[in-house]
Amino acid sequence: MYNTPIERKISMDIQILLFIQENIRNYILTPFFTLITNEYFLYAILVVVLIYMFKKNDQTRKLAKETIIAFIICTVLFIVLKLIFHRPRPFDAFNELIPLVDKPTDYSFPSGHTASAFICAFMVYDGLPKKYSILIIILAILVAFSRLYVGVHYPTDILAGIILAYIVYKFMKKTMSTK
Prior knowledge:
By secondary structure, this protein is mainly α. The chain has helices at residues 5-24, 29-36, 39-56, 58-85, 90-93, 112-124, 130-149, 155-175. It is 74% helix and 0% strand. The longest helix has 28 residues, at 58-85.
């Protein structure tokens, strides 16, 4: 049925999304994941974390500034990649997939929400107390999963967003004095 590796990957992407839609979505989880996936929720959390970091000490203030720079770099890169790859959203490519939020009008690959959540999580991880760092990583994972749950990204979009964030994080670690 699917002869090429690309066809098999696309098939796996769709199968995962259909599995989530048919087996995981429910009236209890839907309000939670629609909140988590809202970009303003992510920005609100980011602002709170950055304010905390700006107030804590000079080292975390510096890390907060570097996090903002990393966020901007990551945002520019995911926008450029979306324009290069032109991957349609899953609900545009497959009628069986029903999005739970307003349909985004930009391209799907990579996931900007996921890249944004993970670049922030990677950057602030070492600058926060361990219990908060773990919460930030969990939040990034929830944001990534929420994009699948609400039906607006393929799993490979999510993976690409995480990889992009990690590459930007490593770049920032090399070029900035963050340790």
